[in-house]
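Following up on my earlier thread - several people asked me to post the actual chain instead of describing it. Fair enough. Here it is, all 277 residues.
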Amino acid sequence: MRKLIVSVAVGTALVAVPAAPASAAGPKPPTVKAAAGLLSLNGKTIWKSNATARRPIASLAKVMTVVVVLREEKNLDRPVKIKRKYTTYGDKWGATEARLIVGDRVKVRDLMYGTMLESGADAAAALADTYGPGYDAFVKKMNREAKRLGLKNTKYANFDGLPYPSQYSTYSTAAEQVKLGRYALRFPTLKKVIATKKVTVRSLNGRSYTWKNTNTLIGKYKGGLGIKTGYTSKAGYCLLFAAERGKKTQIGVVLGSPTPGRRFTDATRLLNWGFGV
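Reply from S.P.:
Thanks for posting it. Predicted structure:
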């Protein structure tokens, strides 16, 4: 998303944070210039910074959106008719869109690509409205799922991280986003979607949509699994990321990076450190 305003609940200062190494005798981890973050290796935390501070997460909220749909829908080829309210949903905030066309009938699995790769507010709106049914009912499902997963410091006010009904409404922590990321990777469909660099899908009306992943590590970082990018002016640049090499799987997040490139740089450095590269 772009041109959005979400306030930081706590931990607003952006600092370069050298975290404690995984062991006293181990090499020092890289310095990470973000407000908060966490890295886990095979489920064990090996680096963290302000990991329990509540912060806005911008479009990382869409991870839960897709998780809720996957837990409910078995027929991912189910068509969803695109309504005008989906294509105009994020206009007030200048939200990023998948550029869906009113009247098209798009499969659920393809809407997931539009939601996760392009971070499309219109695609997320189509999923939320269909599986609520209705936006409000869907957000309640997101919060119930967060509670079921034990995410006690996570709250969703909407399905995409937009700054309403207030600037403090949607938040989580680095620790809980990594926990959610670990759970999300259990879904083969979602794992395939987030690892896709570019995709072209066709609606049942015959229209083609091409979407590119906003995560530039896909196809560049060896073993990279992707997950989700996010941005608002107050959340900063965010990245929930994962990679696997051999028997090692790392899942991490950086919240509140100062630039779009820095989040990818820090993620790369953290992953290299974790893998011992």
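The chain is about 30% helix and 20% strand. That should answer part of your original question.
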